[in-house]
Amino acid sequence: MAAPPPAWQDPEPLALATAPVPEYGGGSLADLLPTLLTGQGVSVPGAVIPELTPADRNCVFLIDGLGWQQIKDHPDEAPYLTSLLGSSRGGTGRPITVGFPATTATSLASVGTGLPPGAHGLPGYTVRDPATGRLMNQLRWRPWTDPHIWQPYPTLFQLADAAGVHTAQVSSPTFERTPLTEIALSGGTFHGRLSGEERMDLAAAQLGAGDRSLVYTYYSEVDGKGHKFGMDSDAWRGQVMYVDRLAQRLAEQLPPRAALYITADHGMIDIPFDEQSRVDFDEDWELRAGVALLGGEGRARHVYAVPGAEADVLTVWREVLGERFWVASRDEAVAEGWFGPPGTVEDRVRGRIGDVVAAAHDDVVITASVQEPRESAMVGMHGSMTPVEQLVPLLEVRS
Known about the structure:
Blueprint lengths: L31 H8 L17 E7 L4 H6 L5 H5 L4 H4 L4 E2 L6 H10 L3 H4 L5 E3 L6 E3 L9 H4 L5 H7 L3 E6 L7 H6 L4 E4 L3 H12 L5 E7 L1 H9 L4 H18 L6 E6 L5 E2 L7 E3 L4 H4 L2 E7 L2 E6 L4 H12 L3 E5 H6 L11 H4 L5 E5 L4 E3 L5 H4 L3 E2 L5 H4 E2 L2 E4 L1
């Protein structure tokens, strides 16, 4: 007699312990500037990356969206950066992590403050402001709120400047007076230059302008073209080729006793335009049930429940998405260390984190076609803890 077929079992959601939590406290973006300034004799808070060695003059070149895997996958477009892969993280040939979520506002705040997201208070692309109950876009700073209440800590650039280190930022003039720059990257002197070549030349000049120097420079268009066209596009590949030349241009102008660190704020993944890969929150009655606000971005969602519905929303999101997303309650995400080591998430920040937090495991996003039409139309995405999004280079050149 044939054995009866096995009873149907509901699929098991991804175990939270399997999420690759960022390497806060010695291997993340938040640890970079504390390491460099400690090596320059400046007393600053924060952990250090033990593989790095001190230099009198330090330059950080942050390329928006060009993660570790993107460089490894494109040696023809990025021959110079590829040649430096072995120098990463103090010559170990290893990447560092950016922090969660893997998104620009969060990462830049981590760079500039030396703090994890749960401490600096920018834990996502859009998060709820507990004071108003409205979503706050932390990249575009809408709606307006006082930047220094939202992020009250001094930047490491400010601490370096106060300690006598020659400190400068060289970036697009567009960013000079933004709230994000003010609370994450200000201190010393801001120099706005339009072209990438001008930025590289001026960054090198500023690096040599002091016996101890800290210079930060930035390029955004790799990320911009990836969002719009994807990484298989000629537009994206052209930007990678261009920024590869910029990095070499800067490296070849380093003054004596200098170190250049080339890094990024996140990686990126292209998401197909099909129903399996793009789950539309605005068209899904199950996911919408009990939800007051949807925050974050497609691969790292903050979900704010109607009061009293938190447990039900968590249950439904796990049932619907739990095989493809790590889905956690706020308390679970905090306890697992998603936003920083245990004990570092501050009370003022907890209410900005979703009642439910969903981080993508598979090649899938949660779009919102009505609420977020521009973001929903993007090809390249980022935000979660997968290696392609989370791992970034820390390439090093010394004079």
